[in-house]
């Protein structure tokens, strides 16, 4: 398996060869050639992974990029209740569900009981005064917090 040290050595070798007179460099042993040789050597990586790496190096889209509907780890870990609340808030306020999920991910990393140093609470990290102003009586209630933050 090619590691960082091996790649670093290849890069260093290429850099050194650039500064040597042509007579002192070994012809035909360019960085690209060395890298290509290294990538084609048998590794401990599965054939499927190695193929993906080659596809990426040759400019073809990865399998993930070709798939249209992928469930992200964030979506896979959400409870059905939370998904329902997010969908309802998105429909109510006519915004994309992904935006709500992104805010929750950024603000609390999907921790319903997150509290910041400044005192912001819940999924959407509502400040207590703001929450009260929005009619939220319990910032740790998922529905109230998400609707208040949306």
Largest sheet: none
Tell me the number of strands.
0
Rg over CA atoms, rounded to whole Å, is 26 Å
CATH fold field value of the domain at 75-149: Lysozyme
Based on Cα principal axes, name the global outline: elongated
Strand fraction:
under 5%
CATH architecture of the domain at 75-149: Orthogonal Bundle
**H/E element string?**
HHHHHHHHH
Percent of residues in helices comes to 55-70%
CATH classification class of the domain at 75-149: Mainly Alpha
Give the CA-CA distance, first to last residue. 47 Å
Give start-end ranges of low-pLDDT stretches. 45-51, 67-71, 73-77
Give the count of helical stretches: 9
Mean pLDDT: 74
Structural class: mainly alpha
Could you characterize what this model shows?
The chain has helices at residues 4-19, 31-40, 47-57, 63-66, 73-77, 80-93, 97-108, 128-133, 142-149. It is elongated and about 70 Å long. It contains nine helices and no strands. It has a domain at 75-149: Lysozyme, CATH 1.10.530. Helix 6 (80-93) runs parallel beside helix 9.
List its salient traits.
mainly alpha; 150 residues; Lysozyme; elongated; single chain
Quickly describe the structure:
With 150 residues, this protein is mainly alpha-helical. The protein contains 9 helices and no strands.
